[in-house]
Amino acid sequence: MERMETKKLPTRVEVALNYITGEIANGNLSPGDKLPNEKELAEKLGISRTPIREAMKTLAVSGLIETRHGHGNYIRKDEGTAVMPLMMFQLYLQDSTPEMLMELRYIFDRNCAELASIRRTEKDLAVMRESIDRLKALSGDPHSPIDKLLEADLDFHRAVYAAAGNKLIVVIADFVLNMVAPWIRKSLEVSGRYRAVGLHEKMYAMIRDQKTGMLSRESVEANMEHFMSSLKIPAA
Questions:
Q1: What does residue 67 show for φ and ψ, rounded to 5 degrees?
Q2: CA atoms lying within 13 Å on the CB side of residue 152
């Protein structure tokens, strides 16, 4: 993939995401802690409550926070949650761009997909298949909530990571996926909800048929190219 240098100003949603994840990285928020409410965050960041709400949805889908209805939002403390990697790595992401994160994701997706092709089980394939079928059903309904589409999309990629059969790779790859989740969401909103199904089917077929090498890379690159075009990310 070609190197990209474009730097974009953060959206209001990204401002909220960066603040919350930064607080975790700096140790001001720990697993189990309650987050400030929408009004408090909006006043502190100088933005409206709408982007705060969107950021909370993204963080919830990504598995970093949990919403307890009537009580507020909390940093998750479940075993396996990517909070600790986030605390170690987030400091290096303060000046990152969607392009930089996408390139990082490409490295993991490409290699995880190839390992999954070699090591996948029938159970792994069943989880991938269910995620695609769910994404397909949601894509066919123009009124489907975007968060449900994002959840199905992320579930597919997590199933691929799990099929790679290496717990260390799974934790790091899933962490990178969490970080790009806001832009995957935007891609689905812009133009991805219909084409996403076909792209995931292509990757699934490659893993099912245990294809490796160039055939493996082609399916991942198709996903990445669509991601870039959806967000209008220019090639260098």
A1: -100, 120
A2: 22
Q: What are phi and psi of 75, to 5 degrees?
A: -70, 130
Separation of alpha carbons 184 and 192, rounded Å: 9
Q: Rg of the chain over CA atoms, in angstroms? A: 18
**8 A C-beta contact, residue 18 and residue 10:** yes
Cα–Cα dist 229/225, whole Å: 6
Relative orientation angle of helices 98-119 and 193-208, to the nearest 10 degrees = 40
pLDDT confidence of 186, banded at 50, 70, 90?
Answer: confident
pLDDT value at position 3?
46
Neighbouring-strand partners of residue 68: 72
Query: In sequence order, what are the residues at sequence separation of 6 or more whose Cβ sits closer than 8 angstroms to the Cβ of residue 232?
Result: none
Cα–Cα distance measured from residue 221 to residue 203, given in angstroms and rounded to the nearest whole number: 10
Structure-derived torsion over alpha carbons of residues 52, 57, 63, 67, reported in degrees to the nearest 10: 90
Tokens of 107: 């490295």
For 79-131, what is each residue's pLDDT tens digit? Answer: 444 444 554 455 455 556 767 777 888 888 889 999 999 999 999 999 999 99
With 0-12 / 13-18 / 19 or more C-beta atoms within 10 angstroms meaning exposed / middle / buried, residue 147 is: middle
Residue type, 150: L
Give the pTM.
0.63
